[in-house]
Specification:
alpha+beta, two-stranded antiparallel sheet, three-stranded mixed β-sheet, binds zinc ion, globular
């Protein structure tokens, strides 16, 4: 596994650092949550909950899929992971903290990061009046997401 090429919200995902982040977010620290986080931090694949479950089960044979879902929810609540949803298909997760774009294969549902630098001003470039007009309607813009959709020729 390639662990050093990733950017973690917590540079060193040691159990102690994870404990602090989980407790700060009002979530319980459990060994299962550590395992789920460490798996997410070790892969680039933006796995689904079922994929996380299949991957950590050999190490934790008694973990249930429901526990994996709860662990992922806790990590998302505590800003340790991101949940990526799409209209048809299971949610996928990553734990990259820096804002980034995604590529999604519409045939397989696979998601990966785009190497393109994130542009915090992209919304203003799309529509310079948008943030202000939404603000006038009581909507406070906190960010945006962008996914490039498509598929590989041979999938
Ligand atoms: Zn990502």
């Amino acid at each position: 596994m390639i662990r050093n090429q990733k950017k973690h919200p917590i540079a060193d995902p040691s159990p102690q650092r994870l404990r602090e982040a989980l407790e700060k977010g009002g979530c319980r620290f459990t060994r299962q949550r550590v395992a789920v986080y460490q798996y997410l931090a070790s892969v680039e694949s933006h796995p689904t909950a079922e994929e996380v479950y299949a991957a950590i089960r050999p190490e934790m044979p008694r973990i249930s899929l429901a526990t994996v879902y709860k662990a992922l929810d806790a990590l998302v609540v505590c800003n340790l992971a991101n949940k990526l949803t799409f209209s048809d298909g299971p949610a996928r997760y990553d734990c990259h903290d820096e804002a980034h774009y995604h590529l999604r294969c519409v045939k397989t549902g696979k998601v990966c990061d785009l190497p393109t630098p994130f542009d915090p001003d992209l919304i203003d470039k799309l529509d310079p009046k948008l943030v202000k007009s939404l603000g006038e309607r009581g909507f406070h813009v906190t960010g945006y997401r962008l996914e490039v959709l498509g598929h590989f020729e041979k999938t």
